Amino acid sequence: MAVMLFAAFAAFFVKGMAGFANTLVFTSVLGFSQQSRLITPVDLLLGIPSNFYLVVRERKQLLPKVVVPLSILVVAGLILGALFLKSGQDALLKVILGLAVTVLGVEMFFRVRSKKVRRQRAWVLAVIGVFSGVMAGLFGIGAFLVAYISRTTQNQPQLIGNISCVFLVENICRIFLYWGSGLLTVQTVKTALVLLPAMALGLFLGLAAAKRVSETVVQWVVLLLLTLSGVSLVLKNLPLALIGILQ
């Protein structure tokens, strides 16, 4: 249990600073000792109150033109995922997604480093928006959402508020899917309740830390986490993807 408490604290400390990546940290810490069918539902239950709090906290920063279309795409992705994932052939798509996220992270690194304000092409935003919504719906992966929202918001509070709102919509929809599939159990809920104080402490300390460092530092943290998300997806799914191709 001590490891799970640490995982919850660390995951949501990072979320408080960057607005995302709690799932990346939570699953990375617990992946060696716990099964995914326990980790993912618990992370989901912890994510709902944290996202709700961040939405309320940054409600003045919400942009309907960003939140509404992405939320619709995420819900559409969840519906597609219910059909697509039954085939079990999702590893290759996750590898492709991981490579794309990594490339986006590197591109954003050079964009931030240049310190030049570049005009965002509408078609690029449209492609990233569609892909991010569907991938978040299919796999619960928010890295592409970050890549999109970071290009359509002006500061870190806007990024955190808008991405938390989209995550909240996705979380609520996924609750019903998990309930129907039997992934949400009494034990899962009990575990999430035990970890709730660690989540809250991590989230508030992460938010406090974000205030004490410059927005540039937070941007670099976001870029690092984004790139790590992509690399992690590739490393975790490449063996399964190769097996699927060779069969």
Describe this structure in words.
With 247 residues, this protein is an all-alpha fold. It has one domain. 83% of the residues lie in helices and 0% in strands. It has helices at residues 2-18, 22-30, 36-57, 64-84, 91-114, 122-139, 143-152, 156-181, 186-212, 215-246. α1 (2-18) packs antiparallel against α2 and α5 (91-114) runs antiparallel to α10 (215-246). The chain is globular. The N and C termini lie far apart (40 Å). The mean pLDDT is 77.
Record the SSE blueprint.
Elements: H1 2-18, H2 22-30, H3 36-57, H4 64-84, H5 91-114, H6 122-139, H7 143-152, H8 156-181, H9 186-212, H10 215-246
Helix pairs in contact: 1-2, 1-9, 2-3, 3-8, 3-9, 4-6, 4-8, 5-10, 6-7, 7-8
